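Ticket #4471: structure export looks truncated?
Reporter: QA, pipeline team
Priority: medium

Steps to reproduce: submit the single chain below to the structure queue and open the exported record.
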Amino acid sequence: MASEDRDKWLAAMKEELESLSSNNTWRFKARLASKGYRQKFGVDFTETFSSVVWWDTIKTDLIIAAARKLKLGQFDVKTAFLYGDFSVDIYMAQPEGFSDSSSQVRKLLKSIYGLKQTPRCWDKRFKSFAENSGLKQSNCDPCLFFNDGKSMYVDDGIIAADEEQTL
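Actual output as written to the record:
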């Protein structure tokens, strides 16, 4: 930094960093991600669409739950994108700095952050799970699944049920 106010800027930055650190503003987190920006449509992927719940669906669900005095619960599927299955083989080069005695290329067994098709893989996996659990997908909103008052959405969801044990 070549400014005449260099020392003032450095002091201000140091003070800000110390404040951020003392207030536990961040935590260290590592997440392996692919270089999805290098993928080519028709070669590396074909489908990317993943449904997103409509705000009106959430409001309607909450109104129905309130009117019927249903119990409400919510859930979040941690690392949801890592549960998706591929319909084709996908290979990925190991990231820089990663070393072990095996080869430098990995075959992915599940979806991973960064790929164009990852949201679609999770969407299909969740739909399969919901249907195998006896839920039916709404014709109005693809993120709404129902059966006896239960409703769910993608990797964060709201559940409404007559009994708390159902939640």
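Status: closed, not a bug. The export was complete when the record was re-opened. Leaving a note from the reviewer for reference: The longest strand covers residues 71-76.
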